[in-house]
Amino acid sequence: MLRSTTEAMSAAIGCCDSMSVLPFDITYKNPEEFSERIARNTQLILRSESYLDKVIDPSAGSYYIENLTDFIVEVTWKLFVDINDKGGFIKAVEKEFIKEDIENTCQKRDMDIAMRRQIILGTINIRT
């Protein structure tokens, strides 16, 4: 239930045009009346109690989302400039820059997890 609520809220914050929340047990059996009721109520609760249908941009002004977006833009731009300096994407692949960058990122992430600098819990990724 938490997963489908989080997914539905993410869709609403992302300004989806329409949403269908499926019962939480649909992947492994025919949904029962209870799970169908929860799926229906998830949408109603997000609308009626969180007022996600009353604002144009539910994520506007959110420090976390704005900060994360800025971080993604900075890192992406730096990577774009690095690839461009190497002669473009094809040249960067031929020089194995892309492969090395992916391997370095994976190695750093694995070390951060092993040293408990990065905590992974379910679908949530918490930076420390």
| Beta-strand content bin | 5-15%
Could you give the order of the helices and strands?
HHHHHEE
The SS-based structural class is mainly alpha
Distance between the termini: 27 Å
Query: Can you give the helix content as a percent range?
Result: 55-70%
Going across the major beta sheet, what is the strand order? 1-2
Q: Average pLDDT across residues?
A: 85
Q: Which stretches of 5+ consecutive residues score pLDDT under 50?
A: none
Main β-sheet description: 2 strands, antiparallel
Number of strands: 2
Characterize the overall form. Answer: elongated
> What is the count of helical runs?
5
- Radius of gyration over alpha carbons? 20 Å
Outline:
The chain has 128 residues and is mainly α. It is built from 5 helices and 2 strands.
Structural summary, described in words:
With 128 residues, the protein is mainly α. The chain has helices at residues 2-13, 33-48, 63-85, 89-94, 97-114; strands at residues 118-121, 124-127. The protein is elongated, with a radius of gyration of 20 Å. The mean pLDDT is 85.
Features:
128 residues; mainly alpha; two-stranded antiparallel ribbon; elongated
